[in-house]
Amino acid sequence: MSEGFAEIWRMGLRSRGFVIGGVITLLFVALAAVALVWTPYPVEEIVVARRFQGISSAHWLGTDQFGRDLVSLLMAGAVNSVAVAIVAVGLGVGIGVPLGAIAAARQGWLDEILMRANDFAFAFPALLSAVMITALAGPGAINSIIAIGIFNIPVFARLTRGAALVVWKREFILAARVAGKGPVRISIEHILPNISSVLIVQVTIQFALAILAEAGLSYLGLGTQPPQPSWGKMLNEAQTLMFLAPQLAIFPGLAIALTVLGLNLFGDGLRDVLDPRLRRER
């Protein structure tokens, strides 16, 4: 086990995407972790006298129209993005993977029903789902999580089903059946371990998409609500101040772009490392 991990680690270090994406992702997670216990200034502290200050030793990225420290807001916004993405992607994995595994194991009419239900869910993207949910329950982070999570369920269900169907045709699965193992036991002991690399890569991709979706929903006023900071909300508040204080839009925009880029690079690197068919000679 340790030798296999060491080999994966060595291959990962030879992948530029894996290294660069991993560093960016690690910095993003570390920023959110630090923000849980410390920020340079209280994120809800409003001091009108220091509004629109530039970059200085006291305020590394300046302040906004309310005198709030931008570094503190970006750090707190990272916490919100991580929390929403973890729960939303976890919801997709927790429901979608079992559904896909069941569909691949049973097939027949059950497979057809589950896949048609997935097609129906695909017809409602995260943004449209959020609009419908907030129309009924009001805007908020919880509703954003539900909307993004609902969108993730069919993604993981379809991916799990497709990958599992390939594994079900392998000879060692036939041997497991001959040994008296049922579909559930085979799925848990053989199918899921053999498709775990595909699922791990997809998790990183959906994590990036969840962060982007949360920022978009907050920008539209459907996601995280004040006084909780959000990168999307910061962009929304800065759009009328572009000529007066462009940094208010530049820094949260860069935070979103770099985080999504880092996760995508990391996901591509993981794909090359974990999937032997896609490994490139280096």
UniProtKB/TrEMBL annotation:
The keyword Transmembrane helix applies. Keywords: Cell membrane, Membrane, Transmembrane, Transmembrane helix, Transport. It is found in: Cell membrane. GO terms for cellular component: plasma membrane. GO terms for biological process: transmembrane transport. Belongs to the binding-protein-dependent transport system permease family. This is ABC transporter permease. It comes from Denitrobaculum tricleocarpae.
